[in-house]
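Narrative of activities, Objective 1.

The group set out to show that a structural description can be obtained from nothing but a protein's sequence at a throughput compatible with the screening campaign. Below is one input-output pair from the validation batch, recorded exactly as produced.
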Amino acid sequence: MVSGKIILSANKKGTKTANSEYTFHISSYDTDGKVCMYEASFKNPGQTKSVHYHKFITETFTVLEGEFYFYVGKDEYVLVPGDSLVLPPNTVHGFRSKEPNSRVMIAFSDSKNRDDFFIELAQIANGEIVLNAEELEAFYNRYDQYNGPF
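Output recorded for this entry:
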């Protein structure tokens, strides 16, 4: 018999920084990392694009509100509500919000602990965890994220 899992809005977790909020719509723990989905909201336009790639993760984005700059390889795109982007493993990419109060849905496949990545990233952004450059690189790599410059 096939079964499913209902995730009620009251039971969803997330994390916050001064400029962003992530809602965990489908936790990586709900699917043993097969798929996970997060809504990211940004109060202010982004200042950096955090260019990176993943060796194993496929990442998708759908803009819900506002506009976003997306960087894929050496190309730049502006995506608006309803636009989506699919990034297979080993694709260099980055993004940042273009307008205040922008929201994007981000989904990952093959990422068993992505919730932990966003929780720890918020702790770093909030100053709760302080890492030197080597520790920061190890943090990102632990979650299949390899940062540029490229």
